[in-house]
Request: fold
Amino acid sequence: MHTLYGKLVAALFALVTLISLIYVVLTVTTTRLYLQEVNQKLNQMLAANIVAETPLLQGGKVNHAAFEGLFHSLMVINPSIELYVIDAEGVILSYNAPLDRVKRDRVSLAPIRAFIAGTEEFPIRGDDPRRPQGRKVFSAAELREGDRLVGYLYVVLGGEEFDSVARMIQGSYILRLGVGVGLASLVLALIAGFWSFNWLTRRLRRLSAAVEAFKQGEFQAAMRLSSWRRGLGGDEIDELGVTVEHMSQRIVDQIHQLRQADATRREMIASISHDLRTPLASLQGYLETLLIKESALSETERHHYLDLATKNGKRLSQLITELFELAMLESQGAELHFEPFSLTELVQDVAQKFELEAERHGLILETEIPAGAPFVSGDIALIERVLENLIENAIKYTPEGGRIRISLVLGPGRIAARVSDTGIGIPEHEIPRIFERFYRVEKSRGDGPEGTGLGLAIAHRILDLHGSLITVESKLGDGASFSFNLPTAA
Ligand code: ADP
Reply:
């Protein structure tokens, strides 16, 4: 009963019962009224004809002999008819029924007048003298002596009619047949209703079972409603099924993403604390050594320890700065200031900035810029950061005597920037991971230049915010070449 199917069946049952009741009551009432109408119409002239044929009054009194004679002949023809002679006020003067069965001494004149005047639609029902509250169809005619109205002949038609619906149905074969056929069709309608509701709710039950299974399975696998009709030909339930299926796929994807994000977050916290702890511990160590052995240390030794402590302090500060930078870039509210700027000028400025450092490392830093490059659109400070990171890396990972080249290539609607070097290169299998935060090839390379493993992650994120990609071509021992492109300003 708590299921949708149960409720639909109960509603159908209640509806069908109500309609059946209305149908029976309506049929019986209209049949009864129709019978009364026909009876009254057929006998409309009966009272008038009797009055015309039989002198019922004589000298203002009822002619009992004539009345008895009339009564006997009518009894033979139609025993259900009752005759009453009433005066002009409606008082019953004489009748043909047994004495004790007449319960009224007068009848209302209004229906009789309406009948004679023909002002009302049939059936017109007048008082039934045999029942204090009863009303029946009748025929009536005026009794006159000369011009004077002295009374009425009041003929009650149909005798004792069926008083209750049950008795009426019992008494009529046609009605019984009608009610029987009606009931049979209702039963058939109920059966058809049960079957069709069952058929219609079957998919909802399947859907609910699938959702339940999805829940039981901890949202691991998306729902598959294979026989579900999709697109054209499907109704609302089909649509619901397809939507729920899509939704389940989304839930599965998002749970998967959440789990991955959670794993990444744990990994990140672990590596951040590790990366922060190492320089911090060294810094502390050197400072403690200085404190403990202060007097025993020579000037050069003291200077050496202070130098190491400063280096670790710097490294710590760089790590924190870059972490903060990445967190800002990855937060939802990262603010970018897009503007048209000259990539040519930017590249020249950045190259100039690194010229001395490259020289110090015994490297040649050169640029290759075609003339007439249009402005590009982007956040100039962030793009400068990308170029700096790429050039810093190139300097870091290129041995003395190498060459670093920054070039621009004009394309349709875009300008590509490329930073390439002749350095140690990147092993092919490491390439897909170098843009991950904290990922350093050096961990597997063993000793190498120092770094945070955040530079490329920051560059990647900045270009991501520009709707662009950073790509790398490299071979171990054969240099590396990083490229990205930006749209030209409108
Ligand atoms: P890091 O601070 O270690 O340089 P990055 O995110 O900038 O971190 O780079 C990640 C890794 O990619 C580096 O550890 C390095 O091994 C490799 N890499 C980046 N640039 C170059 C390059 N120009 N040549 C060779 N290896 C590179």
About this structure: The radius of gyration is 55 Å. The longest strand covers residues 135-145. The longest helix spans residues 236-292. Residues 389, 393-394, 397, 421, 423-426, 434, 439-442, 451-457, 480 surround adenosine-5'-diphosphate (CB under 6 Å).
